Amino acid sequence: MKYIDNNPASSFVEKNNDHRNIFFRNKTDLKKLNTNNTFVQEFVGNPLLISGHKFDIGIYTIITSIEPLRIYIYNGDAILRFCPVKYYPFDSKNLDKYVVGDDYLPIWRVPSLEYYYNELDFGMKESLNAYLKSKGKEPLKIWNQIEDSIRLTILSKEQDILNVVNRFKFKRNFFEMMRFDFIVDEDLNVFLLEANMSPNLSSAHFPPNQLLYQQVLYNMFSLVGVGHRLYKATQPSRSKAEEQMVVSDRNIAVYPEECSSMLCRESCVSSVCQLCKHCLSYDTKEYLQEAYREHMDKGDCKRIFPPSMSKLPIPPEVLENYSPENQLQYRWFQSKCLLDDSWC
After folding, report:
1. What is the pLDDT of residues 305-336, one digit of tens each?
2. Residue 151's pLDDT band (boundaries 50, 70, 90)?
3. CA atoms of 270 and 336, how far apart (whole Å)
4. Handedness of CA 122, 124, 125, 128 (dihedral sign)
5. Distance CA 80, CA 177 (A)
6. Phi and psi torsions of 296, nearest 5°
7. What percent of the chain has pLDDT over 70?
8. Which InterPro entries has this protein been placed in (predicted)?
9. Least buried of 64, 137, 339, 341, by fewest C-beta within 10 Å?
């Protein structure tokens, strides 16, 4: 309520926990609110409009590991969904003006984007990029904010997720795919709407979305190892030599100069030495091999945590809030970057 008092001009929307029954609320309405089945979000009153329509952006996100944490997004495209009725003149009673529902307006019917999408065969993401550039705007501002938002949101819930995973004997025999939904204002500021744990991947309502959904699934299954380049018939009896053909200890070896030094030969105390072969525990070696396989099989997926790396030394403050496992993994990715630019 303090935020409401400090921002008297703001409006809000009240949403049911099942993401149904959305209501436009003002300051007075919220002070009378008394329910445990809803949550409140600030209403973005100056949304970016395309052909007069408000829209949201959905980003398919994959968590492949919790301890340490690895997060990817499907980077080949995004899903754009438009409100079926133009935003202005605004009417809070008409949800079709500002809420994206099941019967949203698809991109191929949006006048300002249909040529990019229908005639030039760009995806939704690149159609949006081309449109924004034609208006003198830089779309990279949107995508950078989206990646930051997903990364920070999941990191803020990392311990909660880990508490759930700890109930199981094996912590790494899983993956999770979700969709983060965002809206953008006219200044290209990005706002997180929600994270959908079970995003709709059915193209029954909008058949042209089938290709997007298929590519999301194809790249996700490749990333997590459900789909392999080797024939399935060879997997049950695959020998150690065949496993090492995919990834071996040599593929995860880093810091050649440091690991050959007397410091690392005699001790594993140094943070650098901890990544030398003789200092790696079985579990650490296993998750680094998983990270290597993911990198090789990521296809159109992009790793956003650990984030993109630099060849410059890692500032201590970057790692200080991470768990020991995340710190070690972060240093490993950076050390791979030092050896090969494709890992940066």
Report:
1. 999 999 999 998 999 999 999 999 999 999 99
2. very high
3. 18
4. positive
5. 18
6. -70, -25
7. 95
8. TTL/TTLL_fam, Tubulin_polyglutamylase
9. 341
Go through the domains of the chain in sequence order and give each one's CATH number.
Answer: 1-43 (no CATH), 46-224 (3.30.470.20), 234-343 (no CATH)
> Residue-wise over 91-123: b if at least 16 C-beta within 10 A, else e?
eeeebbbbbbeeebbbbeebebbeebbeeeebb
pTM of the predicted model over 0.85: yes
For 152-241, where are the E strands, in sequence order? 176-184, 190-196
Which tokens is 157 given? 């819930």
- Tokens found for residue 74: 């499907």
Cβ-contact 127, 115 below 8 angstroms: no
Residues in a beta bridge with 176: 63
Phi and psi torsions of 75, nearest 5°: -100, 0
Bond into 89 cis (ω within 30):
yes
Q: Over 70: is that where the pLDDT of 238 sits?
A: no
| Residue reference for tokens 């409100």 | 83
Closest to 332 in 3D by CA, of 282, 283, 274, 278: 274
Tell me the two tokens of residue 197: 């744990």
